Amino acid sequence: MSKIDIIIPTLNASEYLERTISSIIKSDFINKIYLVDALSTDNTVSIANKLNLETISSKIKGRGNQLYLGATIAKADWLLFLHADSYLEDGWVSEVNKIINDNQMKKKAHYFTFKLDDSSDMASKLESRVLWRNEKLSLPYGDQCLLIHRVLYDHIGGYKQIELFEDVDIIRRLGKNRINRLSSKCITSAQKYIKSGYKKRMAKNVLCLFLYYLKIPVPFIKRIYNL
What we know:
Layout: E1 4-10, H1 17-22, E2 30-37, H2 44-50, E3 54-57, H3 63-73, E4 78-81, E5 86-88, H4 92-100, E6 109-116, H5 121-137, E7 146-149, H6 150-156, H7 166-174, E8 179-188, H8 191-196, H9 198-213, H10 218-225
Parallel strand pairs: 1-2, 1-4, 2-3, 6-8
Antiparallel strand pairs: 4-7, 5-8
Helix pairs in contact: 9-10
């Protein structure tokens, strides 16, 4: 049976971590779960220790660096990159099991269907827009997870140690013909949308992506992203 290593980048993720882990410890095809922590100041690391996770300390903040670091340590044939504020819905195990035991699926990277932990109309509208973006632009984001075989990951150069848009960068290098959407959902916290307002957050995301495609320096885009 093929095995997967799960890599979770964290920074002050204690609010979500137990929910995230409880959604993924349901299969014997998981080899190891790696938590790559960027100097959290809350209880993230103590929770990880309680859950017997392999914890790696990253002195550099930024998911790109954390995902890169986790992948260099992981040993399994398949890698699953999962954000700490996301969790996988029931039923994902059987779908992923079929993927990782099908030799043809090694040629593609796989991402989950986007869903928020919010039942509001604005959340539903955002989910529909993300689905459109996935189908028309072949552009999933990191909050939809990425399941990829080690050979393909190494072939495209893996995650880059960049401050922002590491998810867009790796998807662009994969290309639309080497990505596949799974029907299982990755359910992500809606807190950042609720806190800043859905319309404002969505507009900011579009603006930052536009600036990225214009090759505006990432540190400048990050300042806008963090406003």
